[in-house]
Amino acid sequence: MTWSTRELAELAETTVKTVRYYHEIGLLDEPDREPNGYKRYEVRHLTRLLQIRRLTGLGVPLTQIAAMETGAEGQASIFRTIDAELEATVERLQHIRRVLATLSEPGAATDVPTAFSGVAEHLRGNDRALLMIYAQLFSDESMDAVRRTLEARPNVALDEEFRDLPEDADDTTRQALAEQLAPFIDGATSDHPVTLELKASAPRQARAALGHALEALYNRAQLDVLRRAQMISAVSRGKPVA
Predict the structure, then answer these.
(1) 173-181, long-range: CB within 8 Å, 24+ apart, which pairs?
(2) How would residue 24 be classed by pLDDT, with cut points 50, 70 and 90?
(3) Are 97 and 90 in contact (CB under 8 A)?
């Protein structure tokens, strides 16, 4: 028994166009033709087409299907590669489901990293934006330390004073605020001092990007206070001041 192109495609649950494409790229042999010019496919064509369909369904690229016929080791290598890719995809999808579950909870925020939804209520817009940038560039361990500090809210009044600091704040006000902030920078007042470490995958321009983000999100007085606080913290720990 033989089949036409349409009949072969229907048996393999594919399309005539697909069958013709497999002919074009050499994956499926051309069948003999009837005197009237019509193609007549045999069982060997059907089994080959089913094999191709099975492999493509498993994720094997068409360009590699032909190479799989060269040896068992070549096949095993291709399958291992696909399996590793599928494992990575499964992990990515599981992560997405966990994130979606968190974002589905009442009060969840989409403008902060997922783990920070619980503290987002107390954050202002610039703080939220900075956290998103931090999460992109800093390690998971660093972000965990930041989250724990925000959850503890060690000095709410001091946080508010810094956030409300006007750009024209005088030198005395800036210095006093920096002295109050310094212990939080060096971890002296926290059970979980924050040390920000860049991800191994962070681009070379990460530090410059962070500096630009701070300048865009905070006013000059606030930035000056942060610099002073870092200097005070460094001196207290005996570190050289840059």
Answers:
(1) 174/221, 174/224, 174/225, 174/228, 175/228, 177/225, 177/229, 178/225, 178/226, 178/228, 178/229, 178/232, 179/229, 179/232, 180/155, 181/225, 181/226, 181/229
(2) very high
(3) no
Distances (CA, A) of 2 to 5, 9, 45: 10, 13, 10
Under DSSP, is residue 198 helix (H, G, I), strand (E, B) or coil? strand
Rounded Cα gap, residues 13 and 123, in angstroms: 55
Residue 193, pLDDT > 90, answer no
- Tens-place pLDDT, residues 80-137: 999 999 999 999 999 999 989 988 888 788 899 988 988 888 889 999 999 999 999 9
Q: Which residues contact 8 (CB under 8 A, 6 or more apart)?
A: 19, 41, 45, 46, 49
Q: Which token pair is 42?
A: 């045999």
pTM of the model: 0.64
Q: Output the CA torsion sign for 200, 201, 205, 206.
A: negative
What pLDDT is recorded for position 77?
84
C-beta separation of 146 from 134 below 8 A: yes
